[in-house]
Specification:
single chain, alpha+beta, Heat Shock Protein 90, 4 helices, 7 strands, 32% helix, 31% strand, globular
């Protein structure tokens, strides 16, 4: 089965839950375990939170877009903002790095550990696009076609 969804919402912190629930509902249409879906939700929460907190620096008038595509191999999720962008993506992906001293700096670490693929693209002054993949596992192994 193939299915796609798209959301566009304001950079309001309460919308993190909207993104989580929507992606979980889409992932629930595949053969993901409850643990898989929980990990997908955490990764989405981190990506959307980063967009709101860092991309828009907490301003609630920016747009965040979330898209999910489900296919027989798994799910691909794209979270995009049109905010300040990331100057140094490699530095931002390091554990404990954050531009906000109140934050732990583990967002990308969680995304990388809970998903099977993570691609981050960013342009300063234009925004950031995070693409994540999670493949369906069958008896502890990735879907044969996903490998």
């Amino acid at each position: 089965m193939t299915n796609t969804m798209q959301l566009r919402f304001l950079s309001v912190p309460e919308n993190v839950g909207l993104a989580r629930v929507s992606i979980a509902a889409l992932a629930g249409q595949a053969s993901f375990s409850l643990n898989d879906i929980d990990e997908i939700k955490v990764a989405v929460s981190e990506a959307v939170s980063n967009a709101i907190i860092h991309g828009y620096r907490g301003q609630n008038d920016g747009w965040v877009e979330v898209a999910g595509t489900l296919d027989p191999h798994g799910i691909t999720i794209v979270v995009e903002d049109f905010g300040v962008g990331i100057r140094d993506i490699e530095q931002a992906r390091q554990p404990s790095y954050s531009t906000d001293p109140e934050r732990m700096g583990l967002g990308f670490v969680f995304m990388e550990s809970f998903m099977h693929g993570l691609n981050v693209q960013s342009t300063v002054g234009k925004g950031t696009r995070v693409e994540m993949q999670r493949f369906v596992t069958i008896q502890g192994e990735l879907s044969r076609d996903a490998q």
